[in-house]
Amino acid sequence: MNGIWKNIYGWIDRRVQLKTLVDFLGKKYVPVHRNSIWYYFGGVSLFLFIIQVITGILLLLYYKGSEQLAFESIQFIMSKVKFGWLIRSIHSWAANLFILSAFIHMFSVFFEKSYREPREITWLTGMLMLFLGMGFGFSGYLLPWNEVAFFATKVGTDIAGVLPIVGKPLMIFLRGGEEVTGATLSRFFGFHVAVLPGIFTVLLGIHLILVQRQGMSEPLGMENVPAAEKKTMPFFPNFLLRDLLFWLLVLNLLAILAVFFPWELGKKADPFASAPAGIQPEWYFMFMFQTLKFIPSKLLFIDGEVFGILLFGLAGVLWMMVPFWDRKSSRGEKNRLVNYVGLFVVIYIVILTALGWLL
Amino acid sequence: MPGRKQIAATAIILNDRNTFVNDIGNQHRDASKRNFLKYILGGGLVAWAGSVVYPLLAYLKPPMQAEVEVSSVKAGKLSSIEKDSGSIVRFGNKPVILIRTASGELRAFSATCTHLDCTVQFKKDLGVIWCACHNGKYDLNGRNISGPPPRPLDEFRVVVQGENVFVSRKT
Amino acid sequence: MNRHFLPSVIVLLVFCSLIYGTPALAADQCLLCHEALADKPSALFKHDIHRQKGVSCADCHGGDRSADDMERAMDKSKGFIGVPKGDGISEACARCHASADKMTQFKSTLPTNQFEVLKVSVHGRLSTTGKERIVQCTTCHNAHGVVSVKNPTSPVYPLNVVKACVKCHADAAFMQTYNPSLPVDQLDKYRTSVHGIRNVKGDPKVAECASCHGSHEILPAADVRSKVYATNIPGTCATCHGDAAYMKAYGIPTDQYEKFSKSVHGVALLQKHDLGAPACNKCHGNHGATPPGVESISKVCGTCHALNADLFSSSPHKRAFDERNLPECETCHGNHEIVAATNKLLGTTPEAVCRRCHSEQEWPKGYSAAGLMRRLSDSLEFLESQAGVLVEEAEQKGMEVGEAKFKLRDVRQARLETRTQVHSFNEERFREVAGKGFATAVVVSEEAQSAIDEYYFRRLGLGISTLIITIVAISLYLFIRRLERAAVDRQTTPK
After folding, report:
1. Tens of pLDDT, residues A341-358
2. Which helix (H) or strand (E) segment is C226 a member of?
3. What mean pLDDT comes out for the span A293-311?
4. Measuring CA to CA, which of A45, A173, A231, B46 is 20 to 30 A from C463?
5. C411 to chain B: nearest residue by CA?
6. pLDDT at A16 exceeding the cut of 90
7. CA B75 from chain center: how many Å?
8. What is the overall mean pLDDT for chain A?
9. Which of A69, A108, A145, A249 to mutate to test the interface with B (most CBs of B within 10 A)?
């Protein structure tokens, strides 16, 4: 057995110089410290993304992206296709877990200030992928063409529509017309399975290459610890096996969620029906949605909703630009302000999300 | 968590594992245990792969009924629907009766009798929609005209696109 | 006797007042003159209740009642209007009859809303001329010679009222100008009814037009406020037929309304407001109200329950029932208190109606057929409910059972058809329809069961894969630990 494997390895090695890669991996170390646990969430997000790609492709085999057939084709997948219920539920659950895990990953990076020089690009690509992930969620939510999705999309695109100047054209672009119709569905389907994955893959490639090239970031202050006292673990196989272990557990969690809490399909969207009570966006949009509800309709001379959206836009840009305005961390100094900002954002999101669910 | 523990730097390439295993001491103590663990791990991985691959393969196999059911149902070809006839079309969970009048006009109604939910049918000789259960009759506009039905039949919309006839819910 | 008491008193009073005279009467120059002329109005007015109450010609016609000169008496400047025209007629009556004060002055207890009610009634609409209402007070009550409604000479006395109504309502040419689709043969039908026959014989207690349609407040039958609107009919009939004291002389039961309102028809009509459900008149007729004859019952019920009636009429029971003078449908289902038929009616159990004739000894064939139908019917009902329970269970478990649910309808349909098919009293035909239901019920149950099995299969699959993953995870963990411990060993053990 070993002989065969060695031969195969040798055969490939002679052609693509596997040895350099193996050597590179062999020399790659992961710092071990009390916050090492957070390193795993990047891997988990990656794993969940892979699951999304696989289950997404599988769903594509039976899904039909048209107003008349979308709902029925999902119904068909759920009831007629063997294990269709499993694939669809996993796709839906993994989407949510992906966002969750990406959020955790993002905040851990933020608090560890790992975005500091030289990892600004890694941070930027990560943030962009997070936004794309939310775009995936928003566009995918409509695809079953059920009542809640229909109205959530209506509300969501309405919000985009209130923006000054660009709002209306943006809304029409998103909807493929004045109203949420079959045209919107086709559009969202295209975004969800072609446009977003294409961009995402490029960003993911850059992100992963950078992580490999630059290695794992160490917490601030580790630079001062003498090399002999630093604790590390080899990336391969120790860290990778741990990653795998984590992934297995996540996969099992997905299976449990899919079996015990199968993702509901609800009622088919009826564009002429009145909106059902309790229309809510996906949980990761909730804090923004709830904020817009709290902002008074007129703020000074600017429309409340517009103000809210601009505020969120500004906050998002500032957040994304943290490597550039937080110069202290790059110099290796402590920056309390960033911690306070981060803490405020976490608490704000948690409270507003909770309010959104409770109110 | 493993990360918290004291772990010495080690670089082990998986391919070298066996040599490495042979190198270290206490091999006689651990050999059988190690092999057991390897078998469990290997077997487990194979079984796990099976539990992932089986659903995937089963999913890929097209189901018996290859097409989805639609809520806007295709009721057939216009040319194949005779004049002065009626047929039952399955509309989701409910039957819909598609009528083509003698003048060629197409109409569709819920085929659920408003009396006791039996399925109605077209009665050519009487020119009515008729319920076999209690002789309820509806005219070809769905209005209850005789027998026990208390209400008219709900109307559905018929759309003709080229040759195809579709029935959809009236909104 | 009582009936004649009041008129006699009035006659007596009129007599007395005539003898002793009253100032008003004595001074009424209109009457003096017109009586001398011996014209018809003054002759009729002599017996008019208004005259007895002291109302003068001038109260309606205007003018000066005290002037003995014709010119002065009928001077337009004194308010003389001659013969009131159009709505002026009813308005003249309403001057007193709509005023509670005036009516008390005249010591009358009559209601004062007649004109108001008449205005909103079907007769209060504008006539073809567009200038006046169709009906004025005088149309029914006459102008001169008005007497109390309790007076047998009154045109609206119960025995006379039909004549008042048919003046217009039997006139096809006239009715056509207002409501061409309204029949004009109500009187002919009425004369065939129990009410009409008694009315002709001089019984003022039986229903005439106004008893059901009302008097001043008459509305079209399609108006929900009408006394003869479908949902109001049972109550209208019950005003007499539910009054035990009133009906005492006729010796018929008075509990029909009570029974009807509990019946399947009564519940549908009175509670669910299903206008397709029959009110009293659907079976008894309205103007020709009479109990249906024994052999015509299946025809009457068959107007709605046509299939059952047809099956019954072509069944052997038709002849058997006719020979024994049994009222067809009613024999098994009852009449006013008809409740939704259940399986209990069928079969050979003590409460089953079949048993009333078919004893095991006397009619063994019918007895066994009844027993068989009941067994099949019960089985079908059981299978249907069982299939329903399974489908529901599968649904609650979140499984897609749309198709099974769709087929479940067919089971229900077959069961309902067996109910109808009972009336053929033919074992074979019954068995055929029931068989259809059995087969479908079995299919539905199987589909639902397989959905439920699938549900457990999912959990089993999850259990197995969780077990596998747990084993892999644990061994992977042990493997990592071993790897690292070995590495530590290697580092600390010098080569």
Report:
1. 999 999 999 999 999 888
2. none
3. 84
4. A45
5. B118
6. no
7. 19
8. 89
9. A69
The distance of Cα C99 from the centroid of its chain, to the nearest Å, equals 36
Give chain B positions within 8 Å (CB) of A233.
3, 7, 9-10
Which residues in chain C have their CB less than 8 angstroms from residue B117's CB?
A: 409, 412-413
Residues of chain C positioned with their CB less than 8 A from the CB of B133: 307, 413, 416-417, 419-420
* Most B CBs within 10 Å, among C304, C444, C447, to test the B interface: C304
Q: How far apart are CA A213 and CA A21, in angstroms?
A: 12
| b/e sequence B123-152, b meaning 16+ C-beta within 10 Å | eeeeebbbbbbbbbbbebebebebbbbbeb
Per-residue confidence (pLDDT) for residue A47, from 0 to 100: 95
Which residues does chain A have within 8 Å of residue C480's beta carbon, measured at their own beta carbons? Answer: 238, 241-242, 245
With a cut of 60, say whether residue A49 has pLDDT above it. Answer: yes
Angle between helix axes A147-161 and A167-175 (nearest 10 degrees) is 150
Query: What is the β-pairing status of strands B120-123 and B128-131?
Result: antiparallel
How far apart CA C72 and CA C235 sit, in angstroms, is 56
Question: Mean pLDDT score of chain C, rounded to an integer?
Answer: 85
In the predicted structure, residue C39 carries a pLDDT above the cut 80: yes
Torsion of CA A19, A23, A24, A30, to 10 degrees: 150
Angle between helical axes of A84-112 and A70-79 (0-180°, round to 10): 100
Please state, in angstroms and rounded to a whole number, the distance separating the CA atoms of residues C51 and C24: 10
- Residues whose CB is less than 8 angstroms from the CB of residue C56 and which lie 6 or more positions away in sequence, other chains included: C24, C28, C30, C31, C65
Instruction: Give the global pTM.
Output: 0.61
Q: How buried is residue B94: exposed, middle or buried, by Cβ count under 10 Å (0-12/13-18/19+)?
A: middle
Nearest to A122 by CA among A208, A198, A30, A223: A208
Between C29 and C140, name the one with better pLDDT: C140
**A21-46 residue pLDDT tens:** 888 877 888 888 888 888 899 999 99
Supply the DSSP string of C163-189, one letter for each residue: HHHHHHHT-HHHHHTT-TTS-S-HHHH
pLDDT at C482: 86
The pLDDT value recorded for residue B17 is 43
Residue C363 to chain B, least CA–CA distance (Å): 29
Nearest to C466 among A237, A244, A252 (CB): A252
Cβ–Cβ gap C469/A249 under 8 Å: yes
Amino acid at A179: E
Predicted confidence band at A322 (pLDDT cuts at 50, 70, 90)?
Answer: very high
Minimal Cβ distance to B133: which of C417, C478, C479: C417
Does B117 contact C at CB distance below 8 Å? yes
Chains that touch A (3 or more CB pairs under 8 A): B, C
* Percent over 70 (pLDDT), chain C: 93
Nearest to C476 among B41, B90, B95 (CB): B41
> From the list B4, B56, B171, which residue is nearest A34 (CB)?
B4
Closest to C420 measured CA to CA, from B136, B152, B129: B136
In Å, how far is B143's CA from the nearest CA of chain A?
25
Report residue B150's pLDDT band, with 50, 70 and 90 as the boundaries: confident
**C482 vs B156: CA distance, rounded Å:** 70
Reduced to 3 states (helix: H, G, I; strand: E, B; else coil), residue B123 is strand
Is it the case that residue A300 has pLDDT exceeding 60? yes
Residue among C402, C473, C479 minimizing CB distance to A248: C473
B6 in A contact zone (CB under 8 Å): yes
β-strands A302-303, B73-77: how paired?
unpaired
Q: Is A251's CB within 8 Å of C469's CB? A: yes
Residue-wise pLDDT for B76-115, tens only, equals 888 888 888 888 887 766 788 988 888 888 889 988 888 8
CB atoms within 10 A of CB A167: 17
Q: Determine the Cα–Cα distance for residues A138 and B51; give it in Å rounded to an integer.
A: 31
